[in-house]
Amino acid sequence: MNMDVLASVKFGEQESLNEFLFENGLQHQLFRDYLAQQNVLGPAYPLIDVDVDQFDDWLQAHQVEHEFFAAQLGLSNPFNMLDADFRKENDFYDWLSEHYLTHIQIAGALGI
């Protein structure tokens, strides 16, 4: 897992966003795999790809997975991922920070 990729996305840079999407998708798969080893199966969405015209759908699917991880691991519910306006730089970076911390919590609870 490369947590740095989740924290180093640059606003407006497609290449760093693509790296984020790829790493985020890999981490979600890893989290699901760890839970599946305990016979806990949950929702799985294609988070590596996102259609910018359907970005709210991606955020919603992402939210569902994070809520599942939180419930299974006894973590507090994650922040509402749909509350950010990704066209605003401050919202973008606030969302990234919250999301990064959520992944740190999940990885810690899984012991990875």
Topology:
Elements: H1 3-7, H2 14-36, H3 55-73, H4 89-110
Could you describe the 3D structure shown?
Helix 3 (55-73) runs parallel beside helix 4 (89-110). This protein has 112 residues and is mainly α. Helices cover 62% and strands 0% of the residues. The chain is built from four helices and no strands.
Concise structural overview:
Helices cover 62% and strands 0% of the residues.
Summarize this structure as a short list of keywords or feature phrases:
112 residues; mainly alpha; 4 helices
Counting DSSP E segments of at least 2 residues, the number of strands comes to 0
Number of helix segments? 4
Strand content: under 5%
What is the residue-averaged pLDDT? 92
Oligomeric assembly: single chain
Which structural class matches the secondary elements?
mainly alpha
Q: What Rg is obtained from the alpha carbons, in whole angstroms?
A: 13 Å
Low-pLDDT stretches are: none
Helix content: 55-70%
The separation of the N and C termini measures 9 Å
Please describe the biggest sheet, giving its number of strands, its sense, and whether it closes into a barrel: none
Secondary-structure element order, as H and E?
A: HHHH
The backbone outline, from C-alpha atoms, is globular
